[in-house]
TrEMBL record:
InterPro entries: AB_hydrolase_fold (IPR029058), Fungal_lipase-type (IPR002921), OBL-like (IPR044819)
Taxonomic source organism: Quercus lobata
UniProt keyword annotations, A-Z: Hydrolase
CDD domains the UniProt entry points to: Lipase_3 (cd00519)
Stretches assigned to the Fungal lipase-type domain: 203-366
Coiled-coil region(s): none
Protein's name according to its UniProt entry: Fungal lipase-type domain-containing protein
Gene Ontology biological process terms, A to Z: lipid metabolic process
Classification of source organism: Eukaryota, Viridiplantae, Streptophyta, Embryophyta, Tracheophyta
Record has Lipoprotein as a keyword: no
Length: 478
């Protein structure tokens, strides 16, 4: 059903569910993109640049493929995840076979605190690094990445980790509604890191893109955008990420909403905003940080963007930092400049972590043809986990043919490192067989294993604290 877009002064929305083959081919030869059934744009919109129409073609084709394989992909993911937990619940494969012969196989419970997601098997570490204490420049980054990592797990698992291993307060895990998809596809949890000496920090961690979730991958590859009416200085913002955060059909981003019924969960932005107001109101010294890996990183930087639009002074004053890991691009250059200035005005530091050849920070495509741009302080880490502040990550579009061979060579050394790192850095850095399998796949597609939470956890632990000192980045103080 069509929805009212009066809240937007301009927009370009791709609708892969409505595409037909010949209509899709036609976009390569015609600039009248608004005449295509799968493109929603204001009447009379034209796109004369072939390369941009080509990228729209590729985006639609990719999303259509992801929609086509959604069910089998979900089945493969669920089966793989259950199989890994089945082996783990019975200690190992040999004991599982023995238990099967005896008829007493231990079956895993998907809602239990011992059930791990597929990504959880990439990195089973649950403890915070005891050598990184409060007051260390990288403490918030290390805590944020661990929170981003466990956000992929179920509620019982997250609660157990926060309470039993981190000795912090678990504030809740939530499923949030996507008004456009008509289902709850956004997840986040909150914790409180508090000590007796008035240290009080709330962490909001958004869950990222799950490997077998076609909906989330469609958002990553979508190049749709909105420009909000009356807010043209804000620029163009990624449509899929805004929908996941809480953009409403027909209404956009009203400052306040009234929930119409209780038939579905709340919208992420509004629910989290009200929770933070209540929590921060109990202690005037309390602060909060926002974090997320992958898709979760995109939501993490868009959350304060909407706070800025709504002039939420209290929440902007108490925001201690934004930490994103492997985050995709969320808006155009105008949006980036707007956010840079606003973050500076409110003294909010924004750190965007990029490890190696991670493919996701290089999406959506960024060149003179397409508009998406990164902003903020980019902390780039190589395979030795040595970090540096850069304006933009190397090989920013990933797909450059000239970069393919160096990336494959780097992936080979990452595979070698997976066998040697425990001897150089300690047993807690040992990699498991699941991630090593993906390291092998990375010899052909280097950007996939580089997106792992393990490499980002290692970067926050092994990287230098000096990167977080303000004077280290004088040209980009955020």
């Amino acid at each position: 059903m069509a929805c009212n877009k009066d809240f937007s002064s301009s927009y370009m929305l791709l609708k892969p569910e409505e595409v037909r083959f010949f209509d899709l081919i036609h976009i390569l030869f015609s600039s009248d993109i608004e005449k295509r059934k799968f493109v929603d744009a204001p009447e009379g919109t034209k796109e004369k640049r072939f390369r941009r129409r080509w990228l729209m073609f590729v985006s639609i084709l990719t999303q259509k493929f992801l929609q086509f394989v959604a069910k089998p992909l979900s089945f493969v993911g669920s089966t793989t995840e259950m199989g890994l937990n089945l082996v783990s619940s019975n200690r190992n494969l040999f004991v599982l076979l023995l238990n099967a012969l005896r008829g007493n196989v231990v079956k895993p419970d998907k809602t239990s605190a011992s059930f791990l997601s597929f990504l959880g098997y990439w990195d089973k570490r649950v403890q915070l690094d005891s050598s990184i204490e409060r007051g260390d420049g990288k403490y918030n980054a290390a805590l944020s990445m661990m929170a981003s990592k466990v956000s992929y797990e179920n509620k019982a698992y997250i609660e157990a980790i926060v309470k039993d291993h981190w000795n912090m307060e678990f504030l809740g895990f939530y499923d949030f509604w996507n008004d456009y998809q008509g289902k709850a596809t956004t997840q986040a949890f909150l914790l409180r890191d508090k000590t007796a000496d008035d240290y009080d920090t709330i962490v909001v961690a958004f869950r990222g893109t799950e490997p077998f979730d076609s909906d989330a991958w469609c958002s990553d590859f979508d190049i749709s955008w909105y420009e909000l009416k009356g807010q043209e200085e804000v620029g163009k913002i990624h449509g899929g990420f805004m929908k996941s955060l809480g953009l409403q059909k027909n209404e956009g981003w009203p400052k306040n909403i009234t929930k119409k019924d209780d038939s579905h969960p709340d919208l992420a932005y509004y629910a989290i905003r009200e929770m933070l107001k209540e929590l921060l109101g109990k202690n005037e010294k309390a602060r909060y940080i926002i974090t997320g890996h992958s898709f979760g990183g995109a939501l993490s930087i868009l959350f304060p963007a909407i706070l800025i639009l709504h002039e939420e002074k209290l929440l902007l004053e108490r925001l201690d930092g934004i930490y994103t890991f492997g985050q995709p691009r969320v808006g155009d250059e105008t949006f980036g400049k707007f956010m840079q200035q606003k973050l500076k005005d409110h003294n909010i530091r924004y750190f965007r972590f990029v490890y190696g050849n991670d493919i996701v920070p290089r999406l959506p495509y960024d060149d003179k043809t397409l508009m998406f741009k990164h902003f903020g302080t980019c902390l780039y880490y190589d395979r030795f986990y040595e970090g540096k502040i850069v304006e933009e990550e190397p090989n920013k579009n990933y797909f450059s043919p000239l970069g393919a061979i160096p990336m494959m060579i780097n992936a080979f050394f990452e595979l070698i490192r997976s066998f040697t790192i425990k001897y150089k850095k300690g047993p807690e850095y040992q990699e498991g067989s699941v991630l090593r399998l993906f390291r092998i796949i990375g010899l052909v597609i280097p950007g996939i294993p580089a997106h792992s939470t393990l490499d980002y956890v290692n970067a926050t632990r092994l990287g230098s604290s000096e990167l977080f000192l303000p004077h280290k980045n004088p040209e980009n103080p955020n």
